[in-house]
Task: structure prediction
Amino acid sequence: MDSPRYGARVDLSVAFIAVLAPFAIGNCTGCFAGYLGGWLDALIMRIADVVVAFPFYVLVILLVFLLGPGTSSIYIAITVVSWISYARSFAGDVGC
Result:
């Protein structure tokens, strides 16, 4: 009976951080790029293009493999891959 509660706790923490961390990073990055514009906006969006060029799950699995086992590596991998959609959205909203 204790195992499902532990599994739910881990799943919910991964889900919460997998949404909150990319949202915060993408929001800040997108607002920064959209507000300043110019070469900085182009650079950030080209970095986003490089990350989007790879399939999501393949990149997450590769990053988890490189970072090692543990939930922190899952948090980092999902954050590194997922911030792009938020950044593009906020850069488009803030940009002129």
Q: What stands out?
A: The radius of gyration is 16 Å.
